[in-house]
Automatic annotation (TrEMBL), chain A:
Protein's UniProt name: Peroxin-7
Biological-process GO terms, alphabetical: protein import into peroxisome matrix
Domain of life: Eukaryota
Species name: Cercophora scortea
A Pfam family that the UniProt record links to this protein: WD40
Keywords for this protein: Cytoplasm, Peroxisome, Protein transport, Repeat, Transport, WD repeat
Principal subcellular localization: cytoplasm
Subcellular localization, as worded in the UniProt entry: Cytoplasm, Cytosol; Peroxisome matrix
Record GO cellular component, one term: peroxisomal matrix
Protein family according to the UniProt entry: Belongs to the WD repeat peroxin-7 family.
TrEMBL record, chain B:
Origin organism lineage: Eukaryota, Fungi, Dikarya, Ascomycota, Pezizomycotina
Name of the protein in its database record: acetyl-CoA C-acyltransferase
Pathway named in the protein's UniProt entry: Lipid metabolism; fatty acid metabolism
Enzyme class at the top of the EC tree: transferase
Signal peptide (from-to): none
Keywords: Acyltransferase, Fatty acid metabolism, Lipid metabolism, Peroxisome, Transferase, Transit peptide
MF GO annotations: acetyl-CoA C-acyltransferase activity
Length: 355, 417
């Protein structure tokens, strides 16, 4: 793996990494002192050049940082999710201080996602059990979606700006449609118990290897991501070490595919922007793995759940791997991963195939 | 926000693990483990070798066995729970006395409970839960029944007008045999299938007895026995189940007349026997077992309790087993042995067929049809029958389950180590 680039974040343990949607040479990392348990946070804005990875800018915060999202309308701005419950927007042209501070969450903010369609809103999820939708120009949130328990990750649908998804510690994947009236359900349209087997059907479904899939016990869901090609498909993963894919049109149908292999909880999953069946995952087992969910293969018999295949393994991190993201540009396959080993690694996924 | 909260959230993300089989096979310090389990022989009610031995004496013997076999300091046992069904007053006084006789100090608390045929299992589960919550550190789940001395019409008081006026409530007192007969007819379990299942139970038990497979679980007891012919009372050592009959076949059972209806299918040969016996299970956390140098035989994983219609009492395992699978995330393929109590061949067979459990996984050493069903004892008895057999076969995961009078079912998952 000669082509791997490395950057160190001394004194800070990264939690998230994101490629800029505007430049193939710009990356941001959200990191925290003392593993995010107590202490400051720091945003690293990194530039790739012939000389390697170099710091373009850093911003310090008073509490740990757990996630970040690049602005989709301004190539110099990004938002970070902060341990004190706030979201802070930084501009690369403005030193030191955030240009906006959004503080409504009453506990740690764990995720932030910019609306990729309309580009005029972003959302956040928090340990306080809510998802909030914000305008970058207003200090107060536009909308609050109640979840009721620690919500580790929330995201916008990549094609439809009104559809929001969230996964939480109660083992559920929730889908909200902001076009529905805010009735008693606060836009909630679908709830998928991630651990559960399909509820319909007279018999339990089989996995491709012939084993019956009876589901599992509820477990915290730490991450999820929308497929970039099939806009009804979501991958989830978390404490039970499994990655599952679901089609939100069939909420009681159980998972489409199950991917097993990680030895500890999965912290982050990201679908490839270049292939409909490929996703990458980062786990507390210190590995980053590439998977194919098998959606390109011929269909399986009725009532069968596909076992996704691990197609690659990157094991250069020496501590928990916490963040991973795909570069949107180029021939496809460049991945950035971060871990508690205070390192940012950039590598070509094609070089780890077959492991 | 709180650093401690963040730390414990991270900790729980790490300690959470793969679902299903891999998860229950893990060995963690806070597992509830079994470090000794045993039973007395089970003997025929009214004429067997324990016919003159009261329940408390059986229990004292079993508890003594636990101390001897585990070598545990009795003062470390903080609570004993005894499942017993027929004892007047719940047997509370006698069982406390039995624990003192067995050698436990007065600091060891004792209680009894009654959940009918699952009392022994419920006792083990209650003690496991007490340990899990930190209420106690070491406890014994046990069960006993002397049907010879305590079986009879006195077991249920007369139903009030209020109970009688409610149809489903009134169904609670329909005798087991009558409702099982109706259920067998309703669910289409044929006499031939029941007899074949019952004969297999006898054959498996005969074979297991001949091979000495019950040796490890049975604690021999020395008791007084009155010979009804000579009238003379002597001391005997009871160390084998006397209800097991060799040479029973489906054909020989086919000749027995049905007991509950003229055209019925249930008879003495394909229903559980009326019996006497006791069983006990010593439970503690794995960390405690390691500190005390106890040998770990297996661990308790989870248990389920469900209700069904009183008249369909026999369906209990059919509903309880999937529920315990849901709680543990395992499937029937993951389970190596099912100990499902054979209250009646009809209900046991029906549940197994409905759940799609292969015959060779059910009661490999026979069941209550062959050696008896001392009501309160059975749930605790199944633990030793299961764990020793899993160990002998070098297998891991077992389920114990039973139907419960008045319409309930219980199931538990155990792992042998």
């Amino acid at each position: 793996m000669a082509s791997m680039l490395e950057f160190r974040t001394p004194g800070f343990n990264p939690y998230a990494v994101k490629y800029s949607p505007y430049y193939d040479s710009r990356i941001a990392v959200a990191a925290s002192a003392n593993y995010g348990i107590v202490g400051n946070g720091r945003v690293f804005c990194l530039g790739l050049s012939a000389a390697g990875i170099q710091i373009e800018k850093t911003f310090d915060t008073n509490d740990a940082l757990y996630d970040l999202a690049w602005s989709e309308i301004n190539e110099n701005q990004l938002v970070v999710a902060c341990g004190d419950g706030s979201l802070k927007m930084f501009d690369l042209g403005v030193d030191q201080f955030p240009i906006m501070n959004f503080h409504e969450h009453r506990r740690e903010t764990f995720s932030v996602c910019w609306n990729p369609c309309t580009k005029d809103t972003f959302l956040s999820s928090s340990w306080d059990g809510t998802v909030k939708i914000w305008s970058p120009t207003r200090n107060a949130s536009l909308k609050t979606l109640p979840i009721g328990c620690c919500t580790y990750s929330a995201a916008f649908n990549p094609k439809n700006p009104a559809i929001v998804s969230a996964v939480s510690s109660d083992s559920n994947l929730r889908i909200f449609d902001l076009r529905t009236p805010s009735s008693a359900k606060y836009h909630l349209t679908t709830m998928i118990p991630v651990h559960a087997p399909p509820s319909a059907g007279p018999v339990l479904p089989r996995l491709a290897d012939g084993q019956t899939y009876a589901g599992a016990v509820p477990a915290e869901i730490l991450t999820h991501d929308w497929n970039k090609y099939r806009d009804t498909v979501i991958a989830t993963a978390g404490v039970d070490r499994l990655i599952r894919t679901f089609d939100i049109r069939n909420p009681t149908g159980g998972p489409l595919a199950v991917m097993a292999g990680h030895d500890y909880a999965v912290r982050r999953v990201a679908w490839s922007p270049h292939a409909p069946d490929i996703l990458v995952s980062a786990s507390y087992d210190m590995t980053v793995r590439l998977w194919s969910d098998g959606c390109m293969l011929p269909p399986l018999p009725e009532n069968t759940i596909r076992s996704g295949a691990q197609v690659g393994l990157m094991n250069r991190h020496t501590e928990f791997a916490t963040g991973v993201d795909w570069c949107l540009f180029g021939a496809g396959g460049w991945v950035a991963s971060v871990g508690w080993d205070e390192r940012v690694l950039l590598w070509d996924a094609n070089t780890v195939l077959g492991r | 926000m709180g650093a401690l909260d963040r730390l414990s959230a991270l900790g729980s993300q790490l300690s959470g693990s793969a679902g299903g089989k891999a998860r229950i096979l893990e060995k963690n310090a806070d597992d509830i483990v079994v470090t000794a389990c045993l039973r007395t022989a089970i003997t025929r009610g009214g004429k067997g070798q324990f016919k003159d031995t009261p329940a408390a004496d059986l229990m004292a013997g079993a508890l003594q066995g636990i101390i001897e076999r585990s070598g545990i300091n009795p003062a470390l046992v903080e609570d004993i729970c005894v499942g017993t069904v027929l004892a007047p007053g719940g047997g509370a006084t006698e069982m406390r006395a039995a624990s003192l006789v067995a050698g436990f100090p007065d600091t060891t608390a004792v209680r009894t409970l009654n959940r009918q045929c699952s009392s022994g299992l419920q006792a083990c589960v209650d003690v496991a839960n007490q340990i899990k919550t930190g209420m106690i550190e070491v406890g014994i789940g046990a069960g006993v029944e002397s049907m010879s001395t305590q079986y009879g019409p006195g077991a249920v008081t007369e139903f009030s007008d209020l109970l009688e006026s409610h149809p489903e409530a009134a169904n609670c007192k329909v005798p087991m045999g009558v409702l099982s007969e109706a259920m067998a007819k309703d669910r289409g379990v044929s006499r031939a299938d029941q007899d074949a299942f019952a004969a297999a139970s006898f054959q498996k038990a005969t074979k297991a007895q001949a091979e000495g497979l019950f040796k490890e679980e049975i604690m021999p007891l020395k008791v007084k026995f009155e010979d009804t012919k000579s009238g003379e009372t002597k001391e005997i050592v009871v160390d084998r189940d006397d209800g097991v009959r060799a040479g029973v076949t489906a054909e020989s059972l086919g000749k027995i007349r049905a007991a509950f209806a003229k055209d019925g299918s249930i008879h003495a040969g394909n229903a559980s026997q009326v019996s006497d016996g006791a069983a006990a299970v010593l439970l503690m956390k794995r960390s405690t077992a390691e500190r005390l140098g106890q040998t770990i035989l297996g661990k308790f994983v989870a248990a389920s309790i469900v209700g069904v219609a009183p008249l369909l009492m026999g369906l209990g395992p059919w509903k309880a087993i999937p529920k315990v699978f849901e709680l543990t995330g395992i499937t029937k393929e993951d389970v190596d042995i099912f100990e499902i109590n054979e209250a009646f061949a009809s209900q046991c067979l029906y549940c197994a067929n409905e759940l799609g459990i292969p015959q060779e996984k059910i009661n490999p050493k026979g069941g209550a049809i062959a050696f008896g069903h001392p009501l309160g004892c059975t749930g605790a008895r199944q633990v030793s029958t299961l764990l020793y057999e899993l160990k002998r076969r070098n297998q891991k995961i077992g389920v114990t389950s039973m139907c419960i009078g008045t319409g309930m079912g219980m199931a538990a998952v155990w792992v042998a180590e």
